[in-house]
Amino acid sequence: MRLLVVEDDADLNRQLTEALTEAGYVVDRAFDGEEGHFLGDTEPYDAVVLDLGLPKLDGLSVLERWRRDGRKMPVLILTARDRWSDKVAGIDAGADDYVAKPFHMEEVLARVRALVRRAAGHASNEIECGPVRLDLRAGRVTVDGHPIKLTSHEYRLLAYLMHHKGKVISRTELTEHLYDQDFDRDSNTVEVFVGRLRKKLGGEPIETIRGLGYRMGDPVEDRG
């Protein structure tokens, strides 16, 4: 899962990035509203942590522009403002949730987890696909109840496939959502990690759809 943190305070930006990275996300960073708006408008993020009090372009304007342009990624706003009207304005502008400063990092992590899983249609922190179970809160994967040790890249790949279980996910989409903006998009690492996951998970939990990509779980029914 790929996130964007837009926060002008360098120390807080670093703390958020480190905590989210440790939790299994890949994180891009921005330090002002203009840079944040550009990244959010051009890169596919699974969620954004957005400060309202930003230089060059305030967070509320950034959010309004994203929503006006049809950007639908979940957004968690951060605000040091105590006035309830600022929180209401953020929600009305298109924010999905908010945290007031100062905050506990565990709360931010919990709210980000909730936004990402809800966007994918999951109500629980535990996602199951056959014998494979992913515990988002603990960052733990089990197969038939037995814990499986994964590298950070393997975990990110599995988490994305399980969040979107039943859907065919292209190699391009996986690359865009699993690696930051500086990653070499021409590499074949996705195929390598899929192969490693298959060996660790056993059986064939990850299906290759020739010419299209990969899928975990039964196909999603076309309700259209």
UniProtKB/TrEMBL annotation:
Domain Response regulatory: from-to ranges: 2-116
GO molecular function terms attached to this record: phosphorelay response regulator activity; transcription cis-regulatory region binding
InterPro entries, A to Z: CheY-like_superfamily (IPR011006), OmpR/PhoB-type_DNA-bd (IPR001867), Sig_transdc_resp-reg_C-effctor (IPR016032), Sig_transdc_resp-reg_receiver (IPR001789), WalR-like (IPR039420), WH-like_DNA-bd_sf (IPR036388)
GO cellular component: cytosol; protein-DNA complex
Domain OmpR/PhoB-type: 124-218
Keywords of this entry: DNA-binding, Phosphoprotein, Transcription, Transcription regulation, Two-component regulatory system
Organism, scientific name: Polymorphum gilvum (strain LMG 25793 / CGMCC 1.9160 / SL003B-26A1)
Gene Ontology process terms (BP): regulation of DNA-templated transcription
Name of the protein in question: Response regulators consisting of a CheY-like receiver domain and a winged-helix DNA-binding domain
4-aspartylphosphate PTM sites in chain numbering: D51
